[in-house]
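The pair is quoted verbatim underneath.

:::
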Amino acid sequence: MSKYTSSSLLKISLGILLFFSFFLYIFTEEVYIQIETTSIFIRKWFGGFYLWLGLGTVLLLLVLAVSPWGKRRLGQDQDRPQFSRLAWISMLYSAGMGSGILLRAVQEPVFMRCYAPIYTNTTLENIALEYTFYQWGFTAWAFYAVFAIVIGYYLFVRSKKVLSSSAFSSLEGIIVSKNAQNLVFKGIDILAILTTVFGLVAAIGLGTTQIKGGLDHLLQTNFDSKITILLLILISGLAFISVFKGVNKGIKVISTWNIYITFALLIFVFTQSDIVAILSQFCYSLFHYIVDFIPLSIAYGVYDPGESFLTDWTYYYWAFWLAWAPFTGIFIARISRGRTLRELIIGVLLVPSLGTFFWFTVFGESAFQIVDNLDFYQGEFDNVFSSIFVFFENYTFQGFINTTVILLLISFLVTSLDSAVFVLSMFTDQGKQNPSKKHRLLWSIVLTIFAIGIILLGNAKEDINVLTAMQKLLIITSLPFSLLMVIMILLFFIDFRKSKID
């Protein structure tokens, strides 16, 4: 691959972020309107493309897993996994989903039951969980997995650098000019960096807002933005300590701790609820999700919820998962050396999905029962930031459990942030697998400052939800990346099939 300096990549990326920040601060309303208009345009005209890309990616990975290629390792024949399966799955899950499963655990299933997106011959409870499975399941993890496989192949088999542009190495034979190569590869890497930054800022903003919402609810108060900023600084500081220690001593330890606490929380709700109803609903919803997966994926016939719903929910989710694919996929690749493609696909595509499905079933079915026992449902679970805290008020030890949820939210945000800082540092430090601590510190500071700025701006103008604008910005930045993903997959298989099959 043609060379360009990592310092130039860093300077250009930071320059674009500063340029965007300037316009966002000075022309807030105009930028917000433009983001809103552009995101709606993309979802309207490219929404169908997102759906077909998601379905195609899932089917492609399943075929790859059962084919002879599934035996191939990410690395040399003698390479073996560096991490245990539990540690490996803990890290990839914490990086890929994190606080999102707490944010939506109750609110989304209840919303889907109250406003069913589709109507089939099953119950509203089944429809609600089936559609929640669809939006959090195989497709999301397929976007991560395919990027992890491609990057892992070029990183560990072809000995390329840890850069998004490494997945397009085959273009060297097509693009003759070195200057043109530099321009194309640098553009790909800058796009991946910006998408990662915007994705993290949106996620951190949502997460810290939920933590503040939990504190407001528990303490019956209304903290101002200073508390949100203090929470952000705390999370950023913990993330820097984690990423400073590295993958083994920092990220792995916190990720494993996250899984233990999450599992304990899941078991607590499961054993305190109607176990038979939960298990029955899980099996029933999972069966229908698998049977209906293809028509759901292309919104065919009765499985079409309509353009308005798709625009507000599914298209947005697909764009969000695509936006997180660069850093999540590369991070998964970084921790997956020595594993076979078959193991990686099963570990990334199936195991986290099934765990997520059971999580939503436990919380969703329990919330359904709480709603049914009310004289009149008044939207107790409508607020995405406080719904899970309201939910736990119906259980024993609510104070202890809600405090645990807040700590878990902080911990999940730390693992998402430290994973992103680690990947960004690899990007800008010559594509090294173990980037310098100087780059880790720099990106920790940059992400913190950028996130604080967005929070301040969001509170400065009450009539404009800047955080929502940041989320919708991901829809815009994910479009070119989704188009590049198609090219990336084609180039990978052309290159991959030339090599010897074990």
Remarks:
- The chain has one domain: 6-496.
- DSSP finds 18 helices and no strands in the chain.
